[in-house]
Specification:
- The protein is mainly alpha-helical.
- The protein has a domain of 53 residues.
- Helices cover 64% and strands 0% of the residues.
- The chain contains 4 helices and no strands.
- It is elongated.
- 6% of the residues are buried.
- This is Cyclopropane-fatty-acyl-phospholipid synthase.
- GO terms for molecular function: methyltransferase activity.
- It comes from Noccaea caerulescens.
- It holds the Pfam family CMAS.
Length: 83
């Protein structure tokens, strides 16, 4: 519902695709999951602080809950290295 058809490939899939179809090589890998966790928490906070303005634009409670779930689910996934 958030990104229809979206894909978040694993590092293994990205490196495999690079190796099979290009001459690109990886020189450095850094896990930024904990940073993205913090970013998602900030986005959630900002989003919920503006809930009234969002609803005034015509969005309903289901829309709010969907995004709140997305922020929480992704934040947990990045914090636990699941995503």
């Amino acid at each position: 519902y958030i990104f229809p058809g979206g894909c978040l490939p694993s590092l293994a899939r990205v490196t495999s695709a690079m190796a099979s179809s290009s001459k690109l090589c990886i020189e450095n890998v850094e896990n930024i999951g904990i940073h993205y966790y913090k970013t998602l928490r900030c986005w959630r906070k900002n989003f919920l602080e503006r809930q009234k303005q969002i609803m005034d634009l015509g969005f309903d409670d289901k829309f709010i809950r969907t995004w709140e779930y997305y922020f929480d689910y992704c934040a947990a996934g990045f914090k636990t290295l699941t995503l």
